[in-house]
Amino acid sequence: MKIILLFCICSISFAQEITGKELLEKAIQYHDPDNNWSRFNGTLLVTMETPNSSHRYSRIQINLPEAYFNVKASKDSKTTEYTLDKQKCSIALNGKSNLTDAELKTNNLSCERANLYKNYYTYLYGLPMKLKDPGTLINPKVEKKTFKGQDYLVLNVSYEDNIGTDIWYFYFNPETYALEVYQFYKTDDDGSLKKDSGEYILLSDVEIINNIKIPKIRKWYYNKDNGYLGTDILKQ
């Protein structure tokens, strides 16, 4: 009788386990129930606050169906603008688009940087949906962790070599499946995680844009010493 009872308890326990892909699907269902990210066309207004520095104000336009991306950022007296319209790249500085090579170099402006911004913003603001992109390796084992006093279901993600070498951890609320923290580490030449590298980002509040629940506030910290880096605040 005890053996049967033990078997039943174990069966229930195993039945309640969730795989990495199942967790991701539940998280996407929370954040993007109508699958709107794949056809996202909208504008994000982001204020970046950093210690001992003035704020940076960015207007980001993303139109995924049309392969269009534009970011216009202002800080102090400088305004930069990058546009990627399919394969065409354009750059402006303080409203001037006919820039010399010297002006581009002095202000660290390039089409390579434009693509970095596009990848950065579409990745971070497209989470967790972006975790279904090709080349993303989802660990099937979901961990249960306590971080900053809160309990989470944690998804471990890495990428194929041609995409990236960082190791990421995504922390989901175990009741709502909302993404509330993510964290990444660099790796060494052998592919091992470097514990004193990388950052973690705390997410709070929500902006609903195109019926997608997008975290409004992102606070960035170093993993190695919990040093505060800055805060991004999203407005629609």
Describe the protein:
The protein has 236 residues and is α+β, with helices and mostly antiparallel strands. The chain contains four helices and 13 strands. Strands 1, 2, 3, 4, 5, 6, 7, 8, 9, 10, 11, 12 and 13 form a 13-stranded antiparallel beta sheet that branches. β8 and β9 form a beta hairpin. It is globular, with a radius of gyration of 21 Å. It starts with a helix and ends with a strand. The N terminus is likely disordered.
Quick recap:
The chain is built from 4 helices and 13 strands. With 236 residues, it is of the alpha+beta class. This is DUF6503 family protein.
Which residues sit in consecutive blocks of at least 5 with pLDDT less than 50? 1-15
Helix-strand pattern, N to C? Answer: HHEEEEEHHEEEEEEEE
* Rg measurement, Å: 21 Å
Indicate the overall shape.
globular
- Classify the beta-strand content into a percent band: 35-45%
Mean pLDDT over the residues:
92
Helical content band = 10-25%
Total number of beta strands: 13
- Summarize the main sheet: 13 strands, antiparallel
* End-to-end gap: 60 Å
Figure out the total of helices: 4
Helix/strand structural class: alpha+beta
InterPro entries: DUF6503
Protein name: DUF6503 family protein
Organism: Microcosmobacter mediterraneus
Pfam families: DUF6503 (PF20113)
List keywords for this structure.
236 residues; 20% helix; alpha+beta; DUF6503; 13-stranded antiparallel beta sheet; DUF6503 family protein
